[in-house]
Structures are given as C-alpha cells and as structure tokens.
Specification:
The protein is an alpha/beta fold. 40% of the residues lie in helices and 21% in strands. It contains 17 helices and 17 strands. Strand 3, helix 3 and strand 4 form a beta-alpha-beta unit. Helix 14 packs across helix 15 and helix 16 packs parallel to helix 17. The structure holds 3-methyl-2-oxobutanoic acid and zinc ion (ZN).
C-alpha cells in the first residue's frame, strides 16, 4: 500500500532494454543485453524491463537469459492484452526470484478509433481479462493504458479503476507520444488520485517520451503529484526523441532533495560508467552538452567560470563529477599499468570478461599503449568491444592495405583468416578507401551489404585517439548495426562491416537463428 505522504522512495523502472531498444539502430545482441542488465543491477535500479518476449524468439531468449541470471532487480516483460503474449512473458521471466508481467492496451480516442477499432467497453474488458490472467501467473502485475495523456480523463479513471479491481499492483501512466506538459500532467495525476478508489493501494507509475523535450520535467511533475515509480532509460534512448533519461531524473531528485523530499535507491556513482556502456554498445553517443553524462557536462571553459570554480566549486557546479562516477581525471591507465589494474578498471566499467577474454584484451591494451601515450576509459571500452566482436568468427581481419590519392580511385586489399586458419584475400577499388575495403570484404566473405549509415566517433581524446565506427547496413531486407574500433578509421570501418558479415554468416550456418534480437523479425507494438 502506498502512503504517499510518508513514502518518499521513488522506484526506478529501467526500460533501456525494451523501450530503449525500440529506437532505430539500438537493437542489441543477447550478450550485450546481459551486460547492460548486469550494469543496471549494479546501478541498483528497482525494475529492469528486459524486453517484449512475444516480439521475436530472440527477444524471448534475451528476457529469459536476463531473468535466469537473477542479478537482483525485479525482471519484467511486456505483453499485449492477449493470452499468448502473457504466457510468453511468464515463461521468460519466471526464472527470476522477483518477476513482473506488464500488460498494456491503448485507451485514447485516436488509438481506439484508428488503431484498435475497439469501443471503450471492449478495451476495459480486454484489460481486465489480461490482468486477471496475468495475476493467476504472477503476484506482480503492471498495467499501462497506452497514450494515457491523450485519453479522456473520466474514461482513463474508469480504466484505471477496473485495472486495480482486476488485480494490477502497479498502474503506469504513459505519455506515449511526448505530448503533455508538466502542469497538465500534474492535473491528470491529481484527477486520478481523487477519482480512482484504491489508487493508494497500488504503485502509481509514470512513463514519458521526449518528443517535446519534456520527458524529465513531466516525470518530475508526476512524482510531485503522487507517482512513486519512474520509467526511464539510460541516456534517454528510445523511439523517436527517446524516453525520460534515467540519469537526469535521478540526479534532479538527488540534487534538489530539499525541494522534492524524495529519494531513489540508485548508486549515482555508476551513472557515468553505465551511460558509457550503453553508448558503446548501441553506437548512440549522447551529445556533448547532454545533462549529467555529456562530455561537457562538467567542463568549465569560460574564464569567469574557471575563476569562480577555483575560488569555490559551488559557484558554478551544482553536482560533483564524482557523484555521477566521473573521475576528476579520466586518464586512467598507461603503458606501465599492470594486468591487475587493467582488470579492475574493466570491471568498474561494467564489463565481465573471462580469463581468455581478459588475456586478449590485455594484449590489445599493451599494443595500444605502445602506440598511444595516454589511455582513457573510452580506449578500454573500445578494446573490449573489439575483442568481443573479433571473438565471434567465422572471419577475422588479418591485414588491410589501402592506397588513396587525390586523382585516382582508392584501392584496398583485405586478408581474412577463418576459424580453420585458412587465409583468403581480395583486392577491390572504390570511390574512397572505405568503399574499396568494403567491396574487398564482400568478395572474400560472399556477403553483400548496402551501407546506410557510417558514423565515426572518437573513443577518447587527442589526435591519436581510437576511432569508433558504427555502421548501419542492409542485407536481404533486414537492417544490421556493427561496431569497430582502431586508430585507423578505415580499419575501424572494416571491422564494423566484418562484424555484421560474421553475424549474417553465423545465422546462415545455424539455419536462420540469429541469437540476436537485432536481426530477428519483430512483431510491432
Ligand atoms: O510509451 C508507451 O506507451 C509504452 C507502453 C507500452 C508502456 O511504452
Ligand atoms: Zn514508451
């Protein structure tokens, strides 16, 4: 039972692996999702929404693997209001000591008339049937009336009342299209608080999208009006403009504790490493000026600010970098750092490597330390991603030679080695070195890709920084994302392209199963 006046604890429900993953280009493999789920548990989130099991066999497998790993938080899966979806969620999450079934149906007039073509009463019936069934399988059931913020208030109150009567233990109010504004949302929550009998017996939750840039502000308005769970994602990733950003909403509650008089259980010193982990896995890097985790969030360039900071940091700094896990010097390791220091830093960054992977990553670290004077967290993350990708064949890059000139087409020769130590090479020309290298890779592997996007990001600082390339490509009508890193950007691009080619070849060798949520056909929500 929620006693709003005395319950100051806000539950953090992380949906990076479900709503976040729905963002174009943010699909993740099972291994990547497990890594993020572990980092989220170290961050101490209350609930992890691990996926939408009915969407594809790959999604089911990832939710199940996360639940079976039992990292600690409640593991939740999303279902539409039908028996098959609910059974799939239950089968996927039941391995977790604490698990939740989350059912949803749209309630706004726009969705009723144009998407569902269902009358108001039918929607209530469907929600009640689904919640009743879910409660027979699980004590912890969340219900969401999708597009709640555009639903008639009196009908919304009717739906929420019926959901609570049917046994929902959490009722979540989504601003699905990021349409509401704080004062209006405050009004909506107060309306529900005073028109829904039993609302104080359940956990009221909020789920905001960021289409008008107000997801965090709207979520804060909701908790001031009585919501006690916030649904959010790391780096605010999610469909379109994304979801409420976990790091922003948590730091707002912490930094303005005297104003909100609320708290979360989040270990805020894990925010920055978790943000880095999610951006290096998804290839979606927060803008430099992004609050809390952007590169400039704690940088003070202007002379007047620097002067103030030197006198007293509170003149211009409302949070300390170390509160969000940003070490004052992010220069972490150097040429003389030992294996122990390297392994500790890898763990702090949220990666778990076995002995074999640690050895390989440490060898790569030593090679890079010979080329590059200073090594930063970004370099270590990039090394690990490379080792991870390279450890999944069939092909590995043995060498790459590129010729470019201002008045000749570029030429590239790639040499690959396969799992049986067989070596194959090809030479191809192209408008530029990347195009030439990609063509040569296609000739050796036999996998033809259409390049849709090529993004280059510097993994750390300085001219000798590692280049991190994310490619988005198409093959046989499906979209794939691959990452690669190197001090040489053509090599980084080739590694990213080869990573995707390997995934496609592995799927073909397995007879179609990709083991990757990214590559599977998806049911749409
Ligand atoms: O935005 C939304 O409405 C959702 C629901 C499924 C909770 O993601
Ligand atoms: Zn959503």
């Amino acid at each position: 039972m929620t006693d709003i006046a005395s319950d100051r604890q806000i539950r953090i429900f992380d949906t990076t692996l479900r709503d976040g993953e729905q963002a174009p280009g943010c699909s993740m493999t099972l291994r990547e999702k497990l890594r993020i789920a572990k980092a989220l548990s170290e961050l101490n989130v209350d609930v992890i929404e691990a996926g939408f099991p009915a969407a594809s066999p790959g999604d089911f497998e990832s939710v199940k693997a996360i639940a079976d790993a039992n990292f600690g938080p409640i593991i939740c899966g999303l279902a539409r209001c039908n028996a098959s979806d609910i059974e799939k969620v239950h089968a996927a999450v039941k391995g977790a000591n604490r698990h939740r079934i989350h059912v949803f149906v749209a309630t706004s007039k726009i969705h009723r008339d144009h998407k569902l073509k269902m009358a108001k009463e039918e929607i209530i019936k469907s929600a009640v049937g689904a919640i009743t069934m879910a409660r027979e399988l699980c004590d912890d059931v969340e219900f969401s009336p999708e597009d709640a913020s555009r639903t008639e208030l009196s009908y919304l109150a009717e739906v929420v009342t019926a959901a609570i009567e049917a046994g929902a233990t959490t009722v979540n109010i989504p601003d699905t299209v990021g349409y509401t504004v704080p004062a209006e949302f405050d009004n909506l929550f107060h309306y529900l608080m005073s028109h829904v009998p039993g609302i104080k017996d359940i956990t009221l939750s909020v789920h905001c999208h960021n289409d008008l840039g107000m997801a965090v502000a709207n979520s804060l308005a909701a908790v001031q009006a009585g919501a006690r769970q916030i649904e959010c994602t790391i780096n605010g990733i999610g469909e379109r403009a994304g979801n409420c950003s976990l790091e922003e909403v948590v730091m707002a509650i912490k930094t303005r504790a005297e104003f909100f008089a609320l708290e979360t259980g989040i270990d805020t010193t894990r925010l920055y490493p978790t943000s880095r982990l999610v951006s290096s896995i998804t290839g979606m890097h927060p803008p430099r000026n992004k609050a809390i985790v952007g590169e400039n969030a704690f940088a003070h360039e202007a002379g007047i600010h620097q002067h103030g900071m030197l006198q007293h940091s509170s003149t211009y700094e409302i949070m300390r970098p170390e509160d969000v896990g940003l070490s004052s010097s992010s220069l972490v390791l150097g040429k003389h750092s030992g294996r122990h220091a390297f392994r500790d830093r890898v763990q702090e960054l949220g990666f778990e490597l076995d002995e074999f992977e640690t050895n390989r990553a440490f060898q790569e670290f030593k090679k890079l330390a010979d080329k590059k004077k200073d090594l930063y967290d970004g370099d270590i993350e990039a090394i690990i991603m490379n080792v991870d990708n390279a450890s999944s064949g069939p092909w590995a890059l043995q060498s790459l030679e590129v010729q470019t000139s201002t008045d000749q087409p570029a030429k590239a020769t790639v040499t690959l080695i396969d799992e049986n130590a067989e070596v194959a090479s090809a030479t191809a020309g192209g408008d530029g070195p990347i195009a030439a290298a990609f063509q040569a890779l296609e000739q050796v592997t036999g996998v033809v890709l259409t390049l849709k996007n090529f993004e280059l990001h510097s993994a750390s600082r300085g001219e000798d920084a590692l280049g991190e390339v994310t490619v988005t490509v198409e093959h046989d009508g499906s979209s794939y994302r691959g990452n690669g890193t190197s001090v040489d950007i053509v090599e980084a691009g080739s590694r990213a392209c080869l990573e995707v080619m390997n995934r496609i070849l592995r799927r073909k060798n397995r007879g179609g199963d990709t083991n990757s949520a990214a590559d599977a056909e998806r049911a749409t929500i």
